[in-house]
Amino acid sequence: MKKMLINVRKEELRIAIINGNKLYDLNIENKKFIQKKYNIYKGKISRIEPSLNAVFINYGSKKNGFLPIKEISKEYFDKKTKIKNKNFLYKGQELIVQINKEERNNKGALLTTFISLIGSNLILLPNNPKINGISKKIEGNDRTELKSYISLLNLPIGMGLIIRTASIGKTIENLKLDLSLKLKHWETIKKKAKKNNAPFLIHKENNILIRTCRDYLNKDIKEIIIDNINIYNITKKYIVKIGKEIFINRIKLYKKKTPLFVHFKIEYQIENIFKKQVRLPSGGSIIIETTEALTVIDINSSKYTKCKNIENTALNTNLEAVEEILKQIRLRNLGGLIVIDFIDMLLIKNQKIIEKKFKKISQQDRAKIKINNISKFGLLEISRQRLNIPIKDLHYYKCPRCKGNGIIRNNESLSLLILRTIEEKILKKNTKEIHIIAPINITLYLLNEKKNAIYNIKKKQKKNIKIIIIANKKIKSPNYFIIRIKKKKWKNNLYYKFLNIYIKKNIYIYKIFKYFFKSTKNNLIKITNLLTLNIKNIIYFYQKTQKKYLIKIKKLLNKL
Q: How far apart (Å, rounded) are the C-alpha atoms in residues 133 and 198?
């Protein structure tokens, strides 16, 4: 029996679907992150890239959206325009676009002009007449019955639609009502687009609560348990609005003191989503690693010792891992290319058993999944549609020390790298000084263990160049900075280098320095000493040097 649990906090809203005491699906909405997928904007072409066969769209976000030419509707190809390219598009041209994929890392959002308006029972495609059909997950008599409804819906010319799985058991009147609402919605979108100039947000997709009620409520859900009275009332109203009145009596308000997710024993299961290694019940484990291009999943038998031979051990561990892998993929919102490294199985029939089970369980997933056969190396490649942003992207940020590598360089290796860089900088002409700003442990290692090596570098080049090593407790290994100061332009060089390296990270210091150095240039050499100081020391420094600037400095600090 499946239940929907809705847990509300100030910072986030969590919706879990459980089957017994096992977590089946999870959706989390964080107030700091605003989901933009399926939002509709009026944008304009900012750049045309024939080499990519695409255009970049300014739709109001910091990063421009990426719109492939194949995703542009025919209505936007105007042959009468004066400024043309091979596709008859021009810079500044306005288009109505929808977000297909969210912004991720350095990539902008993927856009389309083929709009999809999602309803409870169907999806209206107002400018894509080529698609007219039924969800692939609907089979048998239900498919035949719903297919007969399409011709009775009186769909306007030039439009398409997809009948969703939620429409099973619904009457033609339910579908007509849903269609009429979506047609009105499309008219509203067109009116808004005409009135406003690009970039402009025309339609914002519903919040997580409404989306979940619309997409997940089906016959399998026997109870909806909510721990907040306001959300309880909102849910009831929305369920009536979308025509799912049968669920009204299944909604219950949770009043116990024990937190909702703790009561149903799923809090620890949610924590597993954030772990790299997930244990299997029999003693085996799976390790999940996500990279820029793909996700890799490795299966280990670990402590699994129940079987008599290695072939049975491999088969049983792999079978157990299949269920957990598909569950973790679904819960973590993993998408794109996923490669699974199964434990090697010698018998081909065992490989077929794994493939069959994988395909069977994957049918429960809402996302589209394409599955390959297990290769001779024991690898299974799958491609999964990314429905939402991965859970880790919402709750984690890249480590500033290792830059996401997971490992850092040891002191000896890092010191040798610094020495090689010093040697390279010394060879350049007009070098007056070289300043090395490094963590305390690296600085101590260089001064104690590599003092002779630094001296030999200077001696070998026969140049009178100062090498200054500055310890900074705020910089953590493996981060370091090397500043090369030229003979003629050493003042400006040091000033700009300091701004680029250090002050950009400390905006309040940047504003003070920017103002101060407009009027005085006598104390530029002391900048290097300030690297180890905090803000109180900096104010003290100015008291000693330029008292008249102190009041203005304090005003700047108060503004920040």
A: 33
Under DSSP, is residue 266 helix (H, G, I), strand (E, B) or coil?
coil
**What tokens appear for 339 in the block?**
């490669």
- DSSP code, position 227: S
pLDDT at 297 (0 to 100): 92
Backbone angles phi, psi at 350, to 5 degrees: -70, -35
User: 352-356: which pairs have CB atoms within 8 A and are 24 or more residues apart?
Assistant: 353/315, 353/319, 354/315, 354/318, 354/319, 354/322, 354/380, 355/380
> Per residue in 7-55, pLDDT tens?
888 778 888 888 888 888 888 877 777 778 888 898 888 888 888 888 8
The H or E element containing residue 436 is strand 431-438
Question: DSSP 3-state assignment of 88?
Answer: coil
Residue ranges of alpha helices (H) inside 363-489 are: 391-395, 411-426, 440-449, 451-461
Q: Peptide bond before 439: cis, by omega within 30 degrees of 0?
A: no
Distance separating alpha carbons of residues 131 and 23, to the nearest angstrom: 35
pTM over 0.85: no
Which pair of structure tokens corresponds to residue 495?
């000033």
Helices (H) and strands (E) in the chain, counts: 17, 24
Give the model's pLDDT for residue 78.
60
Query: How far from chain centre, in Å, is Cα 314?
Result: 34
| pLDDT for residue 413 is more than 80 | yes
Determine the 3-state secondary structure of 205 from DSSP.
coil
Residues in the chain: 560
Q: Where are the alpha helices (DSSP H) in 153-273?
A: 172-195, 208-216, 229-241, 260-263, 267-272
Q: Which residues contact 46 (CB under 8 A, 6 or more apart)?
A: 56, 57, 58, 64, 91
Provide the percentage of residues in the chain whose pLDDT is more than 70.
82
Average pLDDT over residues 497-517: 44
| Structure token digits, residue 22 | 């096992």
* Closest to 528 measured CA to CA, from 472, 487, 476, 477: 472
d(CA 465, CA 426): 8
Q: DSSP letters of 327-389?
A: HHHHHHT--EEEEEEPPP-S-HHHHHHHHHHHHHHHTT-SS-EEEPPP-TTSEEEEEE---S-
For the record, the structure tokens of 479 come out as 């981060």
Amino acid in the structure at residue 290: T
Helix axes 440-449, 411-426, angle to 10 degrees: 70
Which contiguous run of DSSP H or E holds residue 251?
strand 251-253
Q: Which two tokens stand for residue 240?
A: 């009536």
Give residue for tokens 């370091």: 480
Separation CA 366–CA 216 (nearest Å): 9
Q: 5-17 as b/e, with b when 16 or more CB fall inside 10 Å?
A: bbbbeeebbbbbb
Residue 47 φ/ψ, nearest 5 degrees? -155, 140
Q: Coil, helix or strand for 259?
A: coil
Cα–Cα distance for residue pair 277/289, rounded to 1 Å: 9
* CA 305 to centroid of chain Cα atoms: 39
**pLDDT computed for residue 555 by the predictor:** 53
β-strand partners of 98: 40, 112
Peptide bond preceding 50: is omega within 30 degrees of 0, i.e. cis? no
Count of beta carbons in the 10 Å neighbourhood of residue 208: 19
